[in-house]
Structure formats: structure tokens, C-alpha cells
Amino acid sequence: MISFLISIAALVLGYLIYGRVIERIFGPDDRKTPALVHPDGVDYIAMPTWKVFMIQFLNIAGTGPIFGAIMGAWFGPASFLWIVIGCIFAGSVHDYLSGMLSLRHDGAGLPELVGKYMGNTIKIIMLVFSMLLLLMVGAVFVYSPASILAGIGGNEIMWFVVIFIYYIIATLLPIDKIIGKIYPVFAIALIFMAIGLFVCLLIKMPHIPEVWNIGNMDSWMTSQVDNGHDLLGMKEYLKANTIFPAMFITIACGAISGFHATQSPLMARCLKSEKLGRPVFYGSMITEGFVALVWAAVSSWFFYSAGWKQVLPPDAVNEFLNQVGNTDGKTLIQYFNAPAVVKLVCSSWLGVAGGILAMLGVVAAPITSGDTALRSARLIIADFLKFDQKPIIKRLMIAVPMFAAVLMLLIWQLASPNGFNALWQYFGWANQTLSVFTLWTITIYLYRKKKCYWVTLIPAIFMTAVSLTFIVQQII
User: Which H or E run contains 230?
Assistant: First the structure.
């Protein structure tokens, strides 16, 4: 695990060194923050820093750094490089500067910031684009937890209704009533799960692909052959999904994610000081990178080192092997989806506690991402319409049509056989395209302020190339 351990050390150094460089470029000072200038008891509320950090971490993380890293490991050890380089030089910079820019503009949402520095036309495009993304997040993150909960009891429709009701309550109530109380608990559970798995990795020290194996994975693939059948399925997967740009779309949370820029303004309205921006915004992204690296290593062990055989009972191993040779047989990549890997590994390595944490990871985390996405959508529309959000009636005026739109997306998902997969694919592309808008906005801000704009210009150019290449491939 040499590559993995070096990657962990690099993240820590990235926060301590490059994080301070970015902080100095921006230059936080002692001016009063939006939470102190105009508190409204709903969205602008000064909260303890540790709570703001935990909420920010859970807002941006959810299941993104878990599921994305598991699927990203199918591209081989290149995933380690992307998580580390992307997190330090792109994702954390993106999150910190978008959060600080919001702080400097009274907690303004992303479309407002984009409009200020890129013009009204781009602002309208950004408004529509970000709203579509946030509504998709709300719809996508109802589907998977409802499906899992239905396996425990009840049915999917019942859980759709329960989660949807929670969304409505969490979106409308003041941020410190529900989000401020339960989010830190879920965030701590998510971090504890990652630390527990990290310790297990150190104890087991499994043999997994290293970065110098990039482009030479033959020995790892041939080790997963049974009776002439390719168990792994990596070759076929890479034919359909080239590393560039697919890996950079698949691994978003944990490296860079445009969705984060819609969440940072939520916490920009709750910070007590600008100088807390680096630990909250840059630090939460580095923490997410740690979670992603852990799951990339776990996933490498699971798929490349036959870890799946160790967490499955013998009859389940035989069941998989027996179906591989069939006409409709599935490879390891097709047979074990990300939620299944989470459940199997956590239950096996962490016991009963691991099973509970896995449930929190695959159920609670996506739900919490969904409700803050819809809260962000409400605030973005309110900023655009200049609607004061203190009166509940004005919150309802925005929330009712917004929830109607999410409900229609949910109905479409249920009616379409490939609805969830199609929605997830476009969500991934829209997510990274949103980061492009954010990075260019920050670059223009830094240029106008005569600050070092190269720190965002280079990531902006790269992510523009990723997003354009991916959508052109889909069209062709």
C-alpha cells in the first residue's frame, strides 16, 4: 500500500502547505461576516465552528467520496493520483475560494457570484443549470436510500413519501433546528467509518496495485481468471469508459465537485470569522479526500486482490463463479455495485458497528445531501427573486413548485427502466460542468483583484476539457 500511504501523507501536507498558500492569496481579514451583520434566525445564524465544519463536510460528502471512489478504482491505481492531485490543487481550492467569495458578498449563492463576475447572460444560464443539478440531486438521493430501506421493511413508495416529507421539513425550518443538530452526528459517523477502515487496512496491509502499475495491469487482471473466464471485467469496462474523461467524471467528490460550490454559501452564512474559512472549506474537502482514498484502497483490495472472496460466505462465492460463464453472466464489476461493497466490507471488517455505519453511509448520507441541495435551491431562487426568507409564506412560495418538480423527476425515475442510471450519468456531467463555471468565476475575481489567478486558471482549463470531452463522447 505504498501509493495509498504516500497519498494520505500528501493530503495532510496539502492542507498544511498549499492550503495556507491559497489562504494568503485570498487574504481573509477581521471584517464582520454575514452571520453577524444581518442574522435572520433562519439561514443567517452564527454557529460553533466545529458544527459548521461537520455540516459542511456532510453537505459536500454524502456518499460521493464512497461510491465515486469505489467505481473510480475500476480505472486502476490512476484513481489515487486523481484523488490526491485533484483534492489538493483543484477541489479544496474550488471549495475554499467559492466559500470565501460568498462570505465577501453577504453569503450570495453561486449564480449571483457568477453573474457578478461573468455577466447577466451567464448568470441566467448558471441559475437554470444549478437549479437542474440541485433538483436532480434531490431526486437521485431519494431513490437509492428508499430502495435499501425497502429491503428492511415496507416498500419503496412508502419510503419515498417518508424521505420526501423529511426533505420538506428540513428545507423550510431554520438551519440550526434539524441540520445543525443531526448533521454533526452523521458526519462523525462517516469519519469514524473511514478511520476504522483505515486502521483495518494498516493491520491487513493488503497487496494492491500501485501507481507504477498504471498501464500495466495485466498481472492483476489475469489473477482474476477462473476456468478461462475474466472475473474482473476491467478490459471491457475500459473499452466503454476511457480514463480520460470518464474517471474524472466518476470520481468527483473526493477530487473536485461543482455541487460543493452550491453548498459553501450555506455555511458562509453561519461562520463567525473569515479566518475560519481554511479549516472549514479547505479542511472539509481534504477530509473528504481522505474518505475517498480509503475507499479507493478498499475497493482495490476487493476487486484486484480477491477481497470479495474473503467477505462472502463460500456458497455466495460459488454462486458468483457459477454464473460467470452463462450467456448473461456478470463480471465482478457488474455483480458488486458500490452499495454492496460498502455493506460487505463494513460488516466483515467492523462487525455490528460496521453494519450500522454502512447503513448510515448508504442511507443517511444521501438523504442529507438531498435536503441541503433543495435548501440551496430555495436560497438561490430567493436571491434571484429578492425574496426575504424570514417569513414562512415566502419560503413556501418557492418550495412548493420546487418540490413539485422533484416529484415529477421521481415519477419519471420509477416509470423508466433505466431512469436512475440515466439521471445519475447526467448528474455526474452536470456536477463537473458546474465546477467549470465556479473556477472561471474565481479566476476572474482573482485577476481583477491582481492576485495569483493561476491557482484556479489551470484547474479551470483542465475541467473544461474534461466536461467538453465527456459530453462530445456521449453525443457521438
Answer: strand 229-230
Among candidate residues 349, 371, 247, the one with its CA nearest the CA of residue 301: 349
Find how far residue 127's CA is from the centre of its chain. Answer: 20
- Which 3 state secondary structure label does DSSP give 225? strand
Omega cis (within 30) before 245 = yes
Question: How much is the pTM?
Answer: 0.91
Which of 468, 466, 443 lies closest to 455 in space, CA to CA? Answer: 443
Which pLDDT value is given to residue 209?
Answer: 93
Backbone dihedral region of 154: left (phi > 0), alpha (psi from -120 to 50 degrees) or beta? left
Residue closest to 261 by CA, chosen among 384, 115, 431: 431
CB 256 within 8 A of CB 86: yes
Could you tell me the domains of the chain? 2-475 (1.20.1740.10)
- Summarised one tens digit per residue, pLDDT across range 16-73 is 999 999 999 999 999 999 999 989 888 999 999 999 999 999 888 877 888 889 989 8
The H or E element containing residue 144 is: helix 120-150
Cell of 398: 418557492
3-state helix, strand, coil in the chain (%, to 5): 80, 0, 20
C-beta of residue 232 within 8 angstroms of C-beta of residue 304:
yes
> How large is the C-alpha radius of gyration of the chain?
22
Element (H, E) at 363: none
pLDDT single digits (tens) 358-406: 777 777 778 888 888 888 888 888 888 888 888 888 888 888 888 888 8
**Do 278 and 457 form a contact (C-beta atoms < 8 A)?**
no
- E-state strands within 367-474: none
What is the C-alpha to C-alpha distance for residues 331 and 240, in angstroms, rounded to an integer?
15
Residue 142: band (very low, low, confident or very high) from pLDDT cuts 50, 70, 90: confident
Distance, CA of 425 to CA of 250 (rounded, Å): 9
